[in-house]
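We emphasize that the prediction below concerns an isolated chain of 189 residues; any contacts that depend on oligomerization or on bound cofactors are therefore not represented. The input was used exactly as deposited, without trimming of termini.
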Amino acid sequence: LAIESIHVAIGTVQVLRGLSLDVAAGSMAGLIGRNGAGKTTLLRSVMGHLAPSRGRIAFDGRDLASCSRHERAAMGIGYMPEERGLYPRMKVGEQLVYLARLHGLSAAAAKDAMERWTTTLGVEARRGDEVQKLSLGNQQRVQLAAALTHDPELLVLDEPFSGLDPVAVDVMSGVLRDRAQAGVPVVFS
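Result of the prediction step, given as a token string:
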């Protein structure tokens, strides 16, 4: 992931000014800063939800500004937004299979991915529960599973540790380290 001197304004407020960052394959970059520092703005810009007024964001040499959302999804980017991005009344397992299918996995591969990630993240016993019935920490684990089911080539995670207990932080940290060791660039706030 290459971010080259981007500028992003929200309304009249210049949130990012000339920010550059390279996240190589197999590495992790954590964004640290106070509230309002621009961490979420940067991640939303990477995902195409906000357009920089200047600069360039590229993944694997491809300029992301020229890509549609469909093309971004096909590029293998796993995204975990800060706000809950799950269907609250849908069951965990069904939702993860559905989201994996949207990324092009076959029904069997989507089911296998759902089983793998819910087990890895410690929410396998909650597969049949509606998301809204889970604790915030377990919802966070399911959000990460949703970002991982399609085996992304880049992970973009906004506040992935929010609401997690110490055991869940260890599990989440281990998953992110494993993904990085597998060659996936990981960027998180």
